[in-house]
Amino acid sequence: MDQFILDGTSYSRLLDGAQTTVLILLFAFVLGVVLSVVVGVMRLNAKAWVRGAALVFVEFFRGISSIILLFIVAIAIPIFLGLGQGNLIVLASIALGANMGGYGAEIIRGAILSVPKGQTEASIALNLSEYQRLRHIVLPQAMRVILTPMGNLTIEILKGTALASTVGVVELTRALTATNNAQLNAGPDERIHYLFIGLNALLFYFVLALAVTFLFRWGERYIESRYEGGAATARTDTGAEAAA
To answer: Is the pTM of this model over 0.70?
Structure first.
């Protein structure tokens, strides 16, 4: 079991890969959340063509394979347009963010629909604009429904960052492969079994997933704390904020 502890070079390689993984996750998360909210709201728009466009987006990015989407965004499109390959981290983040947006939009749509219609009717009676209703009345209440599935989706995107290795991004999975390959050139007494290298990489992913889970659970507790006085109190507060 002493082999479970890797040498400094191996840990440095895995740590660099983990940093790239986190960077891709952050970029993809920001893009994914923006797309989720925009497309999710569009799915409930009164205009049929807006709902239709949003539905096409959702079905396309939910239905296409993530690895194919990565290939199209990072390799096929730059070649087709005659452009340089560009920053692979950004391109991988765009692909994963779009994929997250396709799933996240349905989470947002379902959460908005879960808010009692009386809240929207009351906000209309207060003469609030559509943006004000969404910002101050609907989304604050919908957040209680959004956070748990969005946290699960974020962890799925974290695991999906491993696919970025297929287009040349040196993230955690690619660093794992490089560490394994380095062992082929090591002497018999210096070699570390692939199993232990893989377990170390697995530990990195576990810690990252644990951090994501902690952040979302903190968010859930924060949202719930705002509703400790009951739904009526929370609705009064948000309505007062909107009216102000």
So the answer is: yes
